[in-house]
Every structure is written in C-alpha cells, then in structure tokens.
Amino acid sequence: MYKDALFDVEGVCFSYGGSTVLDGVTLKIDAGNFYTIVGPNGCGKTTLIDILVGNKSPALGSVKYLGHDINRYKKRDLARQIALVPQESHSYLEFTAEEIVIMGRHPYIPRFSAPSAMDLQILDHIMAQTGIDGLRGRCITDLSGGERQRVSFVRALAQKTPVLVLDEATSNMDIQYTLALLNIVSERVRLENGTVIAVMHDLGLASLYSDRLIFMKNGRIFSEGATDVVLTEENIREVFNVDSRIYFDAYSNSKQPIFKGGRK
Amino acid sequence: MTYLYKIFDKRPIRVSYFLLLAFLLVLAIIFSTGMGYLNISAIDVMKIMVARISGDGNLLKGVNNIFPYVILEVRLPRILTSAIVGAGLSISGVIFQGILLNPLADPYTLGVSAGAAFGASVAIILNISFLGAYSIQLFAFLGAIGTLIAVIYLSSFEGRASSNSLILSGVIVAAILSAGISFLKYVADEQVSIIIFWLMGSFASETWADVSFTMIFVLAGFLISFFFARDLNIISLGDRAAHSLGVSSDRVRMILLVTASFIAAVCVSVSGIIGFVGLVVPHLMRFFTGADNKVLLPASGLAGAILLLSADTITRAVLPREVPIGVITAIIGGPLFCYILKKRGKRVVNV
Question: How far does A209 lie from chain B, in Å, by closest CA?
Fold first, then answer.
C-alpha cells in the first residue's frame, strides 16, 4: 500500500485567457475519504477537478497521483484509476442506457473485443444495484435530465476505479436517487478504501457524506479539514457571503447549516 | 435472472443484417449490370463475371460476344464506382454526425463539396487538360483538400476545434467558394453547361482507374474509422467524460475529421456533388442497428452502396433519358429525410 497522499497538489495555478482561475492551490488527498469541494460559482472548483484528473495541465505547480506526475500516466491506465462524472451529461447519439453504462468498461476492453463475461456481470450488477434497470433499453436522448444524469453516474461506477470524482453529479436528481447513489459511493469509501472527490452546492448534503470539506474562494483553498471542524458559520459567511446557523442534527448524525429565506 | 437483451441477443441479429445487406448488394450489382440499352440476363452476367475472375473462357460459350465488353468495360466500372461512392459518402456521413455531434451534419458540412466544385470549375474554365480526363478530378480533389485545411485552420484554437466553430467555418468558407463558383459560371461562355453538369454529379464515363482510386481511399477510410469506432461512441459523451475513459477526444476527432473529409473529397472528385446520401443513409440505418458506430459504419457503407447504385441504375437504365444522379438522390432522399425528421422530430430537433 502506498503510504503518502493519494493526490499531492503543489502550488497549482491556472488561467483562461487573461483571468486567473486557480491561484496557488496546494492540497493533499488521502485514500479512504470522501472529500467535498464547496465554494461560490466561478471559484475554480471544476477547473481544480479537471487538473486533478489530468484533463487540464496546470500553468504552474504539479499534481502527483501515487507519487508520480499525473500527466505521465497512460490515459488508459489512468482511466482504470480515476472515474469522473461530469456536470453535463449529454449524449447526442441515440445510445441506450445500457450501451452508455457499458462504455464505463471501455478502459478494460481490448480494442476489437466485445465486453467480457465479467464486464457484462458488472453491468448487470451495477444496473440492478442503482435501480436503473428499468431504463436499460431506453434511448438516452429520450430520458429526462435527472435520468440521464443517473445513467452517467452509473457509467462512472461501472468503471470500478479506486477514485471517483463527482462534479455536481447529483444536481438534477430527486432526493431518492441522490441518497441511493451517494450511499453506494460512500460504502465504497468505507469498505473498499475508495476515495471520492465531489463538488456539491448543497452544504447539507455535503455534510451528510463528507469526511472532509474543502472551502474554495477566488481560486484558492480558503479552508480544508474534517467536515465537523470546518463547517462553521464564519466559513460560510466568509466564502458565500451569507448568514447561517449550524446545528448538530441527531437524526442524520451530522452538522446541518440552516439559512434564512424570504418567508414571513 | 440476468437479461442482456441488447448486447448479447442482438449480436446474431446484427450479423444477419450484414449478411442480408451484403447479399442485396451483390444482387443489385448483378441485376443492374444486366440492365441497360442491351438487356443481358443475370445468368449471362454471372457467367461473364466468373469467366473474367477465373479466366475460364469456356463459360462464355453461347454468350453474345459483345456482352463481355459491354459489361466489363462499360457498365461494371460505372456500377462499382457508384456503389463505392455510395458507401464512402455514407461512412463519411456517419463520421461527421459522430464528431460534430450534430444529426444534420453530412460529408459536405465542412465545405468539402464547395471546394471540390470550385476546383472543378477552375479546371473546366481554364481548359486544364495536362492529365487528360483526370484533370478536373485532380482539381476537384485539391479544391476539397484546400478547403478542409482552411476550415481546420479557421476553427482550431490551441489544437482544439469545437464542433460549432468547425460547422461555422465550413459554412463561411463554403459561402465564399459558392460566390467564386457563381462568378466563374458568369464569366464562362460555352463551358457553363459543363460546370453545371459536373455540379449535379454523374457516374457516366467512369473507368477502372476510377474504381481502384475510390476503392483505395474509401476502404482505407473505412478501416481507419472502424479502428476508432468505439472511441467515436465515447466522444458522444462529451470531452470530459471521454477523457476520464481514456479517450483523447481532440486527437480522435481530428484523425476522423481528416479521414471523413478525404473520403468525401475522393467521392466528390470522381462523381460530382451527390447530395443526401451521406445525410439520409446514417439516419436510416440507425433505425435498424442503433447508434453503435461499430455496427453503424459497416451497415451504412453497405446500405449506401446499394442505394446509390440503385439510384444510378434508375437514371441510366430505367428513365427514358439520363437525369443527373444528384437530382435523383435529392428527389428520393429529400422526402425520406423529411419523414425521418418528422417521425423523430423531437429527438433530432432537441439535440
């Protein structure tokens, strides 16, 4: 087992055109934890994720995965290590849900081979476990946004990687499937020493699942630590510029932030 | 109980699709070869073909001795070229719809046809003939490739070319070239009818050289695209998802873009601009095979070959007077596409 951090991010900077998006991000990600990155729109969360998975290269700084620079891995090898559920889950061609999910096995299937018996077994199991069996033969272009997002999520699960990166991966799902899928994911974290790095906007949901929270603001890490330690009214005010109250909720066994709305 | 109704159970069905299509293609070749001014029976056609391939002259006993010449030197080159061009345009259409993520894309979306037409017009107007009959083809091919280079240059930023910028660049370059073609037609005197005739496409006067030339390019193009068929599937998930599955979409997209454009360029330079085949056939075949490009590419190739060969046979041997093939494909393909569009309107339009 590798002893050091799983990801070692060192002084990463990135900019689009002239505007700086990441401004010196340094971060360690340890295996066996559920991390959630929170922060306002445009603070660089998605860019940080793209750099973590090797989709973008930092202008300055380095990202190491298991001690080696992330860009030195072969793409196929990396695809067996890290799966990503992107924000957008479109498909323009009329693939069935089943065909999309089996694409998650792509890194394991030799170029001219059909899926192996094991690939099909994983497909079967994962579709039953996540409750998208009913969508199996349906065309992805006919599904609703939430259903499409579930299929996209399950495709990443079928990839069976030790690291799963979720970029607002449940944003269009109803609460039933959000909980169901995140439960599966956090079970992998607990039982299989898996690692999840998620971007979420719902702080309550983040607190339900995350071992550690990463607050980002203006392309920097504002605060990082155990969820119960860093989920504070001050941090929320500093990062999001809103007032909140934070209570410990016994039913969910988590700290929950409460906000004031417009109701009289 | 596990049920894998699509991936497992559909495989025999898919194989039978291919066998059926291949059978239909052979049938279409044999029957259309027999059709024409001289009607030759299918038996005689097969005898002549087998005799040619095996070199066994005894088979030709009892066959009118002008038939072998008519079939081998006049009809077959034209028939095979039309089948290969039909296959090429359809394969190119599948690739373009896959990489541009646009169901309305076809082999001509990036202006390859306009470039070829411009090149051909220039050759016709300047009476360039250093390569004999092939001068127009060469200029058409160069025009198409020149256009492709211009479009890729215009739409690429830092080695990436987005689907939208490719389509826009194609539209703009094609518009400029169309203006150029209009101007050439305007200044042309008696050659204007040659230009117009070329633009509408024709398989008349194809030779065995045309057959081999198109065959090499279309076959190579098919093999390259088939090699990347699964990557093409995965690209449709979007760049970020594709990357996380180990597919570099920029690289695959560029390779396939060039491949599909070369196929289209060769087809256009041999036969002129034949519309709708590359647009309609991929849609038609998706009905039967689904979206998987591994199946769709060969199926569309076979179906495109059958359809264009049939259309060419209609104009050559059925109609009282030869009508440009581009007109036939538009008359058949246009309404067919309207039907497909309407039937799946929601899906196609919402993309």
Answer: 24
